[in-house]
Structures are given as structure tokens and as C-alpha cells.
Hints:
Elements: E1 2-7, H1 11-23, E2 28-31, E3 43-45, E4 51-53, E5 60-62, H2 65-72, E6 77-79, E7 84-88, E8 91-95, H3 99-106, H4 112-122, H5 132-157, H6 166-169, E9 187-191, H7 195-202, E10 208-211, H8 216-219, E11 225-230, H9 234-237, E12 247-257, E13 267-269, E14 278-281, H10 282-286, E15 293-301, E16 308-309, H11 313-327, E17 332-334, H12 336-339, H13 346-359
Parallel strand pairs: 1-2, 1-11, 2-10, 7-13, 11-17
Antiparallel strand pairs: 3-4, 5-9, 6-9, 7-8, 12-15, 12-16, 13-14, 14-15
Helix pairs in contact: 1-13
The structure holds flavin-adenine dinucleotide and uridine-5'-diphosphate.
Amino acid sequence: MFDFLIVGAGFAGCVLAERIASKLNKSVLLIDGRGHIGGNAYDYYNEDGILVHKYGPHIFHTDNKRVFDYLSQFTKWRIFELRVTASVDGHKVPIPINLDTINELYGFNFNEKQLVEFFKGVAKEISPITNSEEIILSKVGEELYSKFFKYYTKKQWDLWPSELDASVCARIPIRTNRDNRYFSDKYQVMPKHGYTEMFKKMINHPNIHLMLQTDFLAIKEIIPYKYIIYTGPIDSFFNYKLGKLPYRSLRFSFQTLDQEYFQDTGIVNYPYEYDFTRITEFKHLTGQKHTKTTIAFEYPTAQGEPYYPIPQASNWNLYQKYQTEAEKIKNIWFIGRLGTYQYLNMDQAVAQALDFFENTLKKVK
Ligand code: FAD
Ligand code: UDP
């Protein structure tokens, strides 16, 4: 009999397995339907020996010292600040939009103050802000919205920004200075030896028993346990009985090229050209030196693995109904990006798991 069955060995599942095993001294059966740990943050060396992220680029960034300190127990770090360019009107310009983006795109020579005035001139007055179109229009107006956000979002989600919660496009700041980093967080680092190595250390504990290629359905009636922590899609646990929660998926196309580098920076976004949204070159992210290089194209799709919960009110309403069902069952909790149907970054998934451990699991007898 295991004390805990944890479904899913991604950030949420591994953090909780580690906490339960080391702090509560309870036994954990950690399972994943896939053949590896790490969830969507899994990385591995491909056949040419290049470290790649199987499920698309994962760049760690956080303002949360507690999360940073917690993960630092399991990895050393390499400082890495992601810089992204967007291919717009024949230019490769910084995204998030900043002073250099505008000067390069329009051939201006603005300073910061002039850019603030420029934005004031083009921005639309909108109040209250109710969706992702309005939040961008209210900052930079129609033209920049169209060039950078409108069609990228349509490709990524198959929805117009007006159909998505404002928080989606609000992930991308608009800057008036020359800061060309994709993220603004205090800690911007990558696990020195990769994510998978970090996860291995995290769950290396005699109280944790790992089973891969094991779906919850295959063992739920067979292996006894007291409690379940489920980090897969909440609707799948209930066999979709209230309806399917929509998720957006991606298809990744990897290419290894016989050249040292392909592009100048880790990620290049293509807001309106092509069917893919962005190209990642992993060596920029990992710092690896190699004579070859691997790149990945991201093609958004409706079918496939559930990567992104879709931030819309109707979906949250359905999620709430599943959550109400979940609360009726005594020995189960749902957690993580899929379990709570939230567009969480890695650090947020860790913070959520740590809070859940402190506030709930520590009190379990
Ligand atoms: P997951 O990593 O999805 O893990 C859930 C696990 O549960 C999976 O391994 C799955 O196989 C398993 N599972 C599900 N159902 C079952 C079942 N029935 N039986 C057994 N196992 C099951 N975050 C950042 O901070 N920075 C980034 O740059 C970044 N880039 C991203 C890029 C992409 C393309 C995507 C999709 C996400 C990105 N993220 C990024 C978000 C990051 O992936 C998540 O925050 C993180 O993976 C969430 O961890 P999790 O444990 O909640 O979920
Ligand atoms: N986005 C955009 N243009 C860009 C980059 C992002 O319109 O060049 C929008 C798009 O809707 C995207 C969202 O902002 O889904 C969040 O972007 P982010 O890079 O954070 O997405 P993720 O890395 O999570 O896929």
C-alpha cells in the first residue's frame, strides 16, 4: 500500500513526490504515461548529441526567490537571458516591442520620451479591458497590434485575440527602453545540466517508486494507495462526463543542420508568415558547443497532446464544474497546469505545488 499515488512526473508531480518523501517520510508511487520524467520540460541529447527540449523551448524565469532556492537544491544554474526577435516587414526586430523595435521598423531615431509620446498617439482608449485585443490596442494601437499580435495569436490558438482573455497577450510587455530580454524576472537561468538531470535528483529518494509508461487507468484498480494527486487533465480523470475541456496542441518539427549556428538568437517569432509560429535553436538556450545545430519549428494544432489550457471564460466555467466534482471525492487532489486548467509557467507550477504541500498535504494524517 502506497501512501500517495502521484499521476504525472512533470514539475507538479516531481515537486510533490520530493516533498512528501523527504518531509513527511511517506511512500509515493509516481507514475507517468510517457517513457520519461520531467513532463513537458523534459530534455534529452538527440542522436547527434545535441541537448534539445522535446516539447518546445523551456526557459526558466522567476521573481520567486522561494522557488529559485527550492530548485537550487537539485541543480546548478547557467545564467541565460532569452532574447527573441520577430520577423516583421523584412526586419528582425526585438520582441517584446521596445525602443529599438520601433526605430528599426519605421526608420525613426526616437529616444525614450519620444517613444512614450508616439505610443500615446497611436494607443486606443479602452476601458475596461476585457480581452487580448483590447489590451494591446490600448498600449500600442492598431498597426503594431496587427504586425506583432493579431495573426501570431490566430496561428497559435486558432482564435482572434478578441476571443481570448487579456492575460494571454499581456504576457508580452511593451517597453519604451532598450531592454531586449523576453522576460523581466529577477532570476533568468537554465539548469546547468538540463531539466531531466534536475528532475532525476529531485525524485532520487528511497520513498519514491517511479513507474513510466504507466497510465493511471491501467493501475488504478490494481495498486493500492491512500491518496491520489492527479496532474493530468482534470476532464480525463472524470472520463469527460461534463464535456471536454479544450486544449491547444503543437507539432514540433526538428532539424539538425551541418552548420554551427542557424540564427542569431534562441528564438525567432514569425507573427504572420508561414504556418509555424517560431523557430528555436537549442544551443543558444543551453550554451552547448557543437559543430552541428538543432532547430525546432512549432506548428500549432487542435489535435495532439494537451499543451495549453485555453484562457476563456466558458472553459473556466466548465473547469469549475469538474473542480466541484473533485471536491466530492475525499482522497484526491488536482494540481499543475492540466489539473487546475491554468496557463502556468514552470515557476508558477512549482510555487503552486509548494503552497499545496504547505497548506494542505502537511495536515493530512
Ligand atoms: P506537465 O509538464 O504537463 O506534466 C504532466 C504529466 O502528467 C505529463 O508528463 C503527462 O504525461 C502525465 N499524465 C497526464 N495524464 C496522465 C495519466 N492519465 N496517466 C499517467 N500520466 C499522465 N514554462 C516556462 O516557465 N518557461 C518556458 O519557456 C515554457 N515554455 C513552454 C513551451 C511549451 C511549448 C509548453 C507546452 C509549455 C511551456 N512552459 C514554459 C510551461 C511548462 O511546460 C509548464 O509550466 C510545466 O510543464 C507544468 O508542469 P506540470 O507538472 O503541471 O505539467
Ligand atoms: N504573442 C504574439 N506575438 C508574439 C509573441 C506572443 O501575439 O510574437 C501572443 C500569443 O497570443 C501568445 C502569447 O502572446 O500565445 C503568449 O506568448 P508566449 O511567448 O508567452 O507563449 P508561450 O511561450 O507560452 O507559447
